[in-house]
Amino acid sequence: MCDKHQVWLKTCMFSSCREFIFGDPCPGTSKYVEVHYTCKPAKPRPPWLLDLSATPSPDWKYKTTTSTTTSTTTTTQSTTVSTTFPTVRSSLVTNAPVTINSDRKNLLRPKRNNKRKDFITPNEVESSVDKESELNLYIDHCHPTNVRGLFWNWTRTDEMAIQPCPGGSSGFARWRCTSNAAWNLDSPDLSECQAHWITRLETRLRNGESVIKVSTDLAAVTETRSLYGGDLLITTQLMQSLAHRLRQDLFSIASQEQKETLVTELMQNIQKTASNLLDDVQEAAWNDLRPVERASAGTSLILGIEENAFLVADTVNNEKNLVDVTNNILSSVRIMQSRDARPQDFPSLDSLHMAEEAHLVVPSQSVREHGVNGAVRLVFFLYDKMDRVLPSSTNGVKFLNSKVVSAAVSKGRHIRVTQPIKLTLKH
């Protein structure tokens, strides 16, 4: 319907078809128009190419054609030679000789026009006005660009561009064109884009599949695939759901050894998943989220890994110090008797990954006063690359210039200590 007035033109454009043809059935709601167009060449196309459903005939092949034709015309005043030179070319069209008309003395020499043009034709004036008018139509638009595997077309200022998420995911991607004709932030909003594989993992967990199998697959997939913003939100929530599910399943398991094996294996898978989310390859996924959503995903990541660490601390009965090291996270889950508790240093060994980046010391008095039934359960974490998780300050400059370290006891995250905790950060 929009094609009526754009036939056989070198360029074509329209501001909006819905205003003139489709009307506006839903005022105030953002809409978009999908346009299919075809640029028609000056030379005719083969019949099988014009009909996309057709199959080329066997005799339609690339052909090399050579043809020579010479004709001479003589008059009493001058002699003109019209020569058709041999043409050798590979083409899908039939052979067409190229004719060059020239004087006898300048048979192959091109003519030069050294005269300066001192006037402008009316057609050139009209063409210049049309081009200027065409440019003015796009002054209040954001320019087209390719970002995150999607093509973002001309978008009017103060409007939202909406299109389906990239292949292999569901949802819609959004990007607002600001009032100064610039795209909002450096990347579009892909917080709704959720890959199909994460949906299948959620379904498997709801259907009662083993927590260990689901967490193992989650750690493997997040290590090998690039994610979108929506995947981060779902993955961090899934990390907490796995801990809650296993905590319920433990009531039906009699063997203490089996319980400790399950919670330890789940903790390793969850920490590996969380570390994968902080890798450089997933930085674009964090940029898919707006600051509020990014802070929410970061909070869910920390809560998810802490929930699994608390599950380990509450399940293990013997004195242990369970240390797990991944690329971006160092953890230590400690179970000890409260009466013999000593000052707790984290990291406990200088040889551990990132050990030189931070040092935390909990006094013995602060350790003993938080014992429950004669036992103290402590959880320590050291995070790297949390600057991409935490939102920027108001002026857009990152304010985090060190690693992030945390300490907690299993009976609560918000506690008071009678003696101060010593913390040293490298920055």
What does this entry look like structurally?
- The chain is of the alpha+beta class and 427 residues long.
- It is 30% helix and 21% strand.
- It is built from ten helices and 20 strands.
- The strands form eight sheets. It has a four-stranded antiparallel sheet with strand order 14-15-18-19, with helices on one face.
- A hairpin with a 2-residue loop joins strand 7 and strand 8 (150-152).
- Helix 5 runs parallel beside helix 7 and helix 7 runs antiparallel to helix 9.
- The longest helix is centred in the last third of the chain and has 25 residues, at 291-315.
Low-pLDDT regions = 48-120
Mean pLDDT over all positions: 76
Task: Estimate the strand proportion.
Answer: 15-25%
Shape verdict: elongated
Instruction: Give me the count of strands.
Output: 20
The radius of gyration over CA amounts to 35 Å
Instruction: List the helices and strands in order.
Output: HHEEEEEHEEEEEEEEHHHHHHEEEEHEEE
What's the end-to-end separation, in Å? 63 Å
